[in-house]
Amino acid sequence: QVQLVESGGGLVQPGGSLRLSCTASGRTFSSAAMGWFRQAPGKERDFVAAISWSGGNTYYADSVKGRFIISRDNAKNTVYLQMNSLKPEDTAVYYCAAGWITNGRVMGVTTNYNYWGQGTQVTVSS
User: Taking a C-beta distance cutoff of 8 angstroms, is the pair 80, 6 a contact?
Assistant: First the structure.
């Protein structure tokens, strides 16, 4: 069993930055791929970024490429999402997820993830 707890959300002005954290419990965190997804009101949950178990491979949605950076610290059981140059359209609830995924081509598929956090709200507004 893995429990995930996100933190770091909040209100930020356009162009600003936030860093989200997701801390996991459970001994198998270091072997799991980790992903960040987001869901805006009335919309489906969309892929944002993912990172392989070792941290050696990262994957991004086109909409955030060049602005967001995903990283992980397996010693701290934590995955991060550094969000820069934020835009109003980045406003959503952000979720982290854990899955034992080895194929990079399916990192963006929600059904490949086994555990999800409760979400943290990110609002980008002036």
Answer: no
Alpha-carbon gap, residue 75 to 110, rounded angstroms: 26
In terms of C-beta density within 10 A (0-12 exposed, 13-18 middle, 19 or more buried), how is residue 45 classed? middle
CB atoms within 10 A of CB 64: 23
Kindly compute the dihedral angle of the four CA atoms of residues 40, 44, 45, 46, in this order, to the nearest 10 degrees. -90
Per-position b or e across 106-123, b if 16+ CB within 10 A of its CB: ebbeeebbebbbebbebe
pLDDT tens digits, 104-122? 889 999 999 999 999 999 9
Report d(CA 109, CA 124) in Å as an integer.
Answer: 25
